[in-house]
Amino acid sequence: MDNQYQENFENKLEADINIEPKDWMPDAYRKNLIRQIGQHAHSEVIGMLPEANWLTRAPTLRRKAILLAKIQDEAGHGLYLYSAAETLGCSRQDIYQKMLDGKMKYSSIFNYPTLNWADVGVIGWLVDGAAIVNQVALCRASYGPYARAMVKICKEESFHQRQGYEAVTVLANGTPQQQAMLQDAINRFWWPVLMMFGPNDSDSPHSAQSMAWKIKRFSNDELRQKFVDNTVPQVEALGMTIPDPDLQWDESIGHYRFGEIDWEEFYQVIKGEGICNYERVEAKRKAWEDGAWVREGAMAYSQKQQAIQAA
Ligand code: FAQ
Predict the structure, then answer these.
(1) What spacing in Å lies between the alpha carbon of 13 and ligand 1's midpoint?
(2) Is the separation of the CB atoms in 178 and 116 below 8 Å?
(3) pLDDT tens digit sequence for 141-187
(4) Which string of b and e fits 28-61 if b means at least 16 CB within 10 Å?
(5) H/E element holding 255?
């Protein structure tokens, strides 16, 4: 019987028909999706923190309103993704607790500090830019609820990326101090952004299976290359430089070649030893504990409503 289920599952993958929550799926497929979608959700909500650091110091009311809207969007993306993970049978509270306990990861990029206002523009431009390259591919992921969540999320990320680019354009056309501030932000964020795509394909334990299951449609290295190819002309248009002496256009392959990523730094960060890992998780732990009364109140209200309806 199981063989028949397995065959149906594989036929759907082959025919590019989405797998839906009530369909049979192999346990390992389900587990892998909970891991990836859960980590993705954690990244969205942890990703609110570096930007929130600048909310009270945004240079104008307009910038502040845009930043506030962007951060709220990230919270919404987190909620979508937690819901998508829940359709696989996990509990939101359980995976959130795993993140707080360091048993589930979130994107390495959010363990770097936002030291000046240019960092906020650079996050919108480069971090959201990298996220879009990764997530556009995920719009065709084989699991229906994940793929559909990605479509809406990508639309909002596109707005984030454009607002980031617009913000850095103002700095690039500003005073020498503003230009220096932007260059400094690019210098600090460039390599960590390239790390967002994960280890090289040869060192990526999940890639082969995730590609076979059509969760991932492109490999880590393919997406990283696409991001570099998209972004170098944007950096040049801003009159800025990329902190990579090995970066060069290779006409023969039609791509930019770039230098080696510091993988030691990457593994340190995902192990929990980056600059801001402790601070980020502590902020979320405190928010979770401080919010206990809200959850209790909501629960009491819901029980009261159910009792009224039952009466
Ligand atoms: N950081 O075998 P692989 C955003 C882990 S965008 C931390 O290659 P996989 C928007 C990986 O989990 C950011 N850990 O794994 C935003 C695995 O560990 P595990 C979020 C990383 O899954 C913008 C191990 O290394 N986007 O939030 C990273 O096939 C601005 C081996 O790696 C997503 O999550 C990393 N960079 O490929 C919000 C996209 N890279 O689980 C606010 C969805 C790898 O065995 C502000 N995820 N690891 O313990 C994916 O596409 C994939 O999961 C990859 C990794 C490509 C990230």
Answers:
(1) 23
(2) no
(3) 999 999 999 999 999 999 999 999 999 999 999 999 999 999 999 99
(4) ebbebbbbbbbbbbbbbbbbbbbbeebeeebeee
(5) strand 255-257
The amino acid present at 193, given as its one-letter code, is V
Residue nearest to atom 9 of ligand 1 (CA): 206
**pTM score, two decimals?**
0.96
Give yes or no for residue 39 CB within 6 A of ligand 1. yes
pLDDT in tens, 9-41: 999 999 999 999 999 999 999 999 999 999 999
For the Cβ of 129 lying below 6 angstroms from any atom of ligand 1, the answer is: no
Q: Rounded to whole angstroms, what are the CA distances from 300 to 10, 34, 121, 149, 288?
A: 45, 29, 42, 30, 18
201, burial (CB in 10 Å: exposed 0-12, middle 13-18, buried 19+)? middle
Q: Phi-psi bin for 254: left (phi > 0), alpha (psi -120 to 50), beta?
A: left
Is the distance from the beta carbon of residue 111 to the nearest atom of ligand 1 less than 6 Å?
Answer: no
| Torsion sign across C-alpha atoms 125, 131, 134, 140 | negative
CB of 183 closer than 6 A to ligand 1?
Answer: no
**Cβ within 8 Å of residue 224, ≥6 positions away:** 194, 197
How far is ligand 1, taken at its centre, from the CA of residue 107, in Å?
5
* Amino acid symbol at 188: R
* CA–centroid distance, residue 220 to ligand 1 (Å): 10
Find out whether the beta carbon of 108 lies less than 6 Å from any atom of ligand 1: yes
In short, whether 40's Cβ falls inside 6 Å of ligand 1 is: yes
**CA distance readout (Å), 256 to 232, 243, 247:** 8, 14, 7
Task: Tally the residues of the chain.
Answer: 311
Which protein residue's CA is at the shortest distance from atom 44 of ligand 1? 198
Ligand 1 pocket test: which of 270, 277, 280 has the largest number of ligand atoms within 8 Å of its C-beta? Answer: 270
